[in-house]
Amino acid sequence: MTCRELIAILDDYLDGTLPDDLRADLEDHLANCVPCRAYLATYRKTRELGTTAARVEMPDEMRARLRRFLRDKLRGS
Amino acid sequence: MSRYAARIYRLAYGITRSSADAEEVVQDVFLQVVQKGTGFEGRAALGSWIYRITTNVSLNKRRGKRRELETSLDELLPRYRADGHRDGDRAFLVSDWSGTPERELLAGESRRILEEAIDRLPDHYRAVLVLKDVEELSNDEVAQIVGDTVAAVKTRLHRARMALRELLTKRLGARA
């Protein structure tokens, strides 16, 4: 397995959906490739960070404005 | 209302990256929900429809905006040599910032770097990223919402994550 082939299936590896033989090949490659170990570690961290960073909550004042907006629209319709 | 409003806002903000635009999307989507009335088969159908309409309204709102921030994704993907090994400076290839504590990565300068990296992704890549990673939908559900195949969604997700990783490593790797 090359670095290119490994990186192409990283999501399946991290999701635990790789067939056993492919997973074994990937782990063999990882054992002997420092750049791919670094890639895997930083890719995994990127997935985690993206999830947290993109999670934003609606501000309370916006929620109140939305209620007023909908109330006005419903009254007008 | 509150449960759907939170979801719509999260997705709209994730795609538009603008609080003002996301608020307008929420209003547009709720108006469409009110107009559509009770013509849904059930709660699941409503949820899925809301995600679909929110994605479309958000992408429309972004059309023509902030293009200068977006980078061609191809420039941010790993480069390879003819033998399939990665190409590039060895220090960059082995750079590993993953040991940096998450609270540090999500604060101050690192947080700004992360937000900028997310901003630079093309809109339709951010859309699948938010649907999958934040809303925790399955690949099948995301594919239905964005009107694409599961294979295309998986490819888009992978390319988005690779691009994000590349941007983060360029900026955070030197500090690790």
Q: Key features?
A:
heterodimer, A: 77 residues, mainly alpha, Arc Repressor Mutant, subunit A, 5 helices, 81% helix, 0% strand, B: 176 residues, 2 domains, globular
Task: Please tell me about this protein's structure.
With 77 residues, chain A is mostly helical. Chain A has helices spanning 3-8, 10-15, 20-32, 34-53, 60-76. With 176 residues, chain B is an all-alpha fold. Chain B folds into 2 domains: 2-62; 69-175, Arc Repressor Mutant, subunit A. Helix content of chain B is 66%, strand content 0%. Chain B has helices at 2-16, 19-36, 43-62, 90-93, 102-105, 108-120, 123-134, 139-146, 150-172. In chain B, helix 1 (2-16) crosses helix 2 (19-36), helix 3 (43-62) crosses helix 8 (139-146) and helix 6 packs antiparallel against helix 9 (150-172). At the A-B interface, helix 1, helix 4 and helix 5 of A face helix 1, helix 2, helix 6, helix 7 and helix 9 of B.
Question: How would you summarize what this structure contains?
Answer:
The complex is a heterodimer of chains A (77) and B (176). Chain A is mainly α.
Secondary structure blueprint with pairings:
The complex is a heterodimer of chains A (77) and B (176).
Chain A: H1 3-8, H2 10-15, H3 20-32, H4 34-53, H5 60-76
Chain B: H1 2-16, H2 19-36, H3 43-62, H4 90-93, H5 102-105, H6 108-120, H7 123-134, H8 139-146, H9 150-172
Give me the CATH architecture of chain A, please: Orthogonal Bundle
- Biggest interface, which chains? A-B, 43 and 51 residues
**CATH-defined fold name of the largest domain in chain B:** Arc Repressor Mutant, subunit A
Number of helices of chain A: 5
The largest β sheet of chain B comes out as: none
Cα Rg of chain A: 23 Å
Helix and strand composition category of chain A? mainly alpha
Number of domains of chain B: 2
